[in-house]
Amino acid sequence: MIPDPFNRRVRLVVEVRDERDELELATGVFAAQGWRVRPARDGEAVGADDGYTGLIVEVPLRGSRLTARSAARERLTSLAARRKIDVWVREAKLVRPKPAEPNTTYHVHHKVPDGASPALRRLVEHWIAVGGWDLHHTLHLRGEYSEEQRDRVLGELERRNIGGPPFDPEVHDIRMSIGPRPRDRSADPRRKAILIAVVGVVVLVSLACGVVIGALTTPWRFLALAWPLGMCWPVGTWVSANAPRPWLVRLAMGVALVGSLTVFGFFWAGSQPVGLSRQFAGVLLTLLIGFTAFGLWYALSESWFSRNMQWFLPVLAAPLPFALPWAGSFLHAMYLEERFGIPADSVHVAFYWQYAIALRPLGLAVACSLFLVALGGWARHYNIQTGVSGLVRWVLPLMVLVMILTVAVDAVDGVDRAADGAMETAAQGRRPSAYFGLQGELFCVRPLNSKIPVINGPVPTTHPVLSFRASGDTVWLWDPDPARGKDTARHALRLRAEDVQLVAARGRHC
Predict the structure, then answer these.
(1) What confidence tens digit (pLDDT) does each residue in 288-329 have?
(2) At 398, phi and psi to the nearest 5?
(3) Reduced to 3 states, what is the DSSP secondary structure of residue 475?
């Protein structure tokens, strides 16, 4: 059996009852899962208890290394319990890959011409230091930079030519890419932690200085430039410390890095008219989006969805062009017919508003569903679902279904809230807000005859009524007078267009 894609390997010392049938059964069951199984060797000093013998089982799995050992142990013990195998996990160890051997990349470039003037020589040296005048030829060697390694590189380049112009030591030379000094892999972890902390402080303080300059208006705000100006040289020196560089290149690197952080903070503060609390909420929203994005990656990568995406997504998206207009017309009909008593087909609405009104609840439902899937992805990454995989497979889809139904109910409630707001605004003699293409207007009604046929009449002539851009020979109006009763659908009035004149209202009286 081929194991599922994995990024961790856990090696277990397993004690199995020392019987031939038990050993064969355990070996076969574990091997059928794609796990490597072998007897413990003499040199591994596995002293099993009496009546037991030792096996070495390597379990591949996917997820965080923090929970890999407990997940591997739980998988093996639960499998043994289902197959009624007498085993005991004695030891578990995460198999770490050998650290990658350091390597150095050398770039071949032209030398400065011997007859160049001092000014031209300095200019060309700076151009070469930042990667200019290269031959687009690189050589990669294992190990860190040293003079012996440099001589070896020059010797290899002279002896070998794989195409193009050959290497000529008279006109060509080699350089290293700009970067920090290679770290000692055996260095104290505390030094690494201190380095990370210092880099974090430099980044955050540089951003904060830019925010201060952009947010304040007093001339004292320019004192915040002291930090970026003071950090340009040390940052540039640290970034380009892997090889000697001209001082101007080191300064330029520091200005580019620290200056970009400060400028970003400046523009961020200048583009945010809201207060600090709203900016903090925006930061939290950004973190939430990042949490969801990583969770989706953990949930969907190397999964059934990723293996069948080429046909699953088209099948999922195919009904949308037909379902969205239907859902939009349904919400429009609820707004007009259920609340205002006006037939939906009597009001013209542009087709794109049917998509717009349906995309809002759909987007909210998709966002909530993706967040729940992201939670499942984090659970998968930390192997939380190992012992309750069945519960996760059932509960997560049910939670997604409940969330979708909740959003659908909220969309219907949103129709009621929008209609109530429009009715209240119309009763106050003000033009209500538009609702996805449905724009109500207040009109005063002037009958053209003394007696006109009206359904749900009489026609009010002393206060304005609401109209939703009716089309055709029939005019539907809505009377905001609360005296007509609590059933808002019975406030609708139906008239013939030829019997009345509608004049734009000004205030609460006609």
Answers:
(1) 999 999 998 988 887 777 777 777 778 777 788 888 888 888
(2) -65, -40
(3) strand
